[in-house]
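Schema walkthrough. Field components (list of strings):
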Amino acid sequence: MANSTKAKPSYLATLTNGIIKENPVLVLILGTCPTLAVTTMAINGLGMGLAATVVLICSNIVISLLKKVIPDTVRIPCYIVVIAAFVTIVQFLVKAYAPALDSALGVFLPLIVVNCIILGRAEMFANKNDVISSALDGLGMGIGFTLALFCMGSVREILGNGTWMSGASWIGIQNGINLHWENPIIVFLLAPGGFMVFGALVALVNFLTKGKAIKKKEFGCEGCPSAAACKAAQKGGCNA
Amino acid sequence: MKQFAIILISAVLLNNYVLSRFLGICPFLGVSKKLDSAFGMSVAVTFVMALATAATWPIYTYILLPNGLAYLQTIAFILIIAALVQFIEIALKKYIPSLHAALGIYLPLITTNCAVLGVTILNLDEGYNFAESMVNAVGSGLGFMLAMVLFSGVRSRVDAARTIPKAYQGIPITLTAAAICSVSFMGFSGIVDGLFH
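Field assembly_structure (string):
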């Protein structure tokens, strides 16, 4: 975009922002619950990422279109209704076309509705920007989320199960790769492995960016999408 | 009585919401820096979980299901929870101001807490009846509280450590500490069989 100014980033910058610079999982540490829970297999991470991406793009577009209609005081419930509607649609699509993925994701498929990333992008981006930017922002954030989940799922599946991309018949991959390990490290498939691999990946991003990425972000109110609506944030944070 | 005890113990220890089911990770990482805020947040979550289950279970069973509206589950539940949290806040402010002062700041955060929506959906997925659902909701809340309180202790020790590698400081070391807490909870596997069979 030749005519882009500092105030309005180009479409390309909007798109790549979510993939690298503000990766929702590894830099902003949002959407941690699905990240930890569904990434026991690479394909589940990919499926969860794609489902969330669809919801993210659609809800960003609709919220951006409705930004002048939605009254400011009740905007959070309005966003939740829009997001919940798209989550229900995605739930039906997954149930119909990828039943294996549906049973693998379980309760985390309907829980996309409370995924911090989606409400966060609605609040921080879609209600301030035009439709095309919002759609691209949704796409970029979705790709960033999907990539992070896919990486994490790959690490956990390879170390914990000795396979890669198994169970992916719904995207046309029949058997995946079997590494024929005698003793895979099963703990990586269990809950502790999720925390450990997530911590290691965040540390790796920290290391590669020399700590620049994480510095600005600490857990707590700024990281929470309801921060703007939350009275605690204005009083100096939940820990105050 | 036995089935209630089994549900309660599995919800608190075996399938701990935070450390083995990965629900409610945001408050687990965000509000666990101090013991008193960790405790206040968990009391508020337990309270809302119980009330949300008390509201969503009858609505699903007696209104949505008989009318063929089960597909509205996600939308209906999140709206019920959002309205309920708002209502609790108003009611507490008016009638029990002391409790509002203690829990008030945590309530708005709970609307988008996946542990609350998760417990209402899981109760129906498991096919629990109303009493079992309520026991599961309270048990899940207590499990959340146990994890929060334990982890706030762990975290204050981790924050005091001075020899953490630079890349691991902050979020990564907190997650690694959570992994070790989670390993300790794996020690409870088999506790239900051991106690009741």
